[in-house]
Design brief:
This protein is α+β, with helices and mostly antiparallel strands. Helices cover 28% and strands 28% of the residues. The protein is built from 6 helices and 9 strands, in the order αββββαβββααααββ.
Length: 238
């Protein structure tokens, strides 16, 4: 019984949180949503939005609520999926806290507005975070690095790149998503051939977009396939 009581006390001393890595592409840069913490620990330090899960909500519900409360963004309109669990004993100075990290992607996400324990919310270039120019609270730098690699990997094997696009887009706009996230230029003709040869990746709308200069560009929508076959590999081979 004593061992059971000790175990129960240890369980009650643990907490579950959710943290969100939310990516979008703005001005040809991959951006991530951050909040400036308005409370200790890490007062004033940038962090991923997130917080404690309430006892009467699911993990997903907690993630959506925290996103709304801390940044004023409706996460139900985003591509949202679980990234993983993070539970290093010393990751939170307040005690043993296990966090479930979520990955979210979207196009034209509204300007965030800070709330609850977030002093402010803002978009930051991912490039300024992965090179160490800005230090994130908790273990959020590790979560961000894992989320970035997960997105890069998913671009190879799934149609997730379309989550960064509007409902209709040109192949040039889709290619630019790949270039920004992978950090390398792609040959336009080769990319076009690979996309159109991947069954179900995109489908034409029958409409065109007139650019300021040059020829009209055909518009496409996401197709009915999620897994890409053949994949679009970063190494340049399909």
């Amino acid at each position: 019984m004593d061992d059971w009581l000790k175990h129960s006390t240890e369980v009650e001393a643990s907490w579950i949180t959710v943290d969100l890595t939310i990516f979008t592409v703005r001005a040809d840069q991959l951006m991530v949503l951050l909040v400036e913490r308005g409370v200790e620990p890490f007062l004033g330090r940038p962090a991923l939005p997130g917080g404690y899960v309430q006892k009467d909500e699911t993990l997903r519900e907690g993630a959506l609520r925290e996103l709304w409360e801390e940044a004023g963004i409706d996460g139900s309109q985003l591509h949202l999926e679980q990234l993983g669990a993070y539970g290093a004993p010393q990751r939170d100075p307040r005690g043993r806290v296990v966090t479930i990290a979520y990955l979210a992607l979207g196009a034209n996400i509204p300007t965030p507005v800070g709330g609850t324990d977030a002093e402010r919310a803002f978009w930051a270039p991912v490039s300024q975070l992965v090179d160490g120019r800005r230090e994130l609270a908790f273990d959020h730098a590790d979560i961000l690095a894992d989320a970035l690699e997960e997105v890069r990997r998913k671009l190879e094997y799934t149609a997730v790149a379309t989550a960064f696009c509007e409902s209709s887009f040109t192949l040039s706009q889709l290619r630019r998503i790949y270039e920004v996230i992978w950090g390398r230029d792609l040959d336009p003709s080769n990319f076009r051939r690979k996309v159109l040869n991947t069954t179900g990746f995109v489908r034409p709308t029958g409409e065109q977009r007139l650019p300021p200069t040059g020829r009209p560009a055909a518009l496409y929508r996401r197709g009915n396939a999620w897994l890409l076959s053949p994949p679009l590999l970063r190494g340049g081979q399909s």
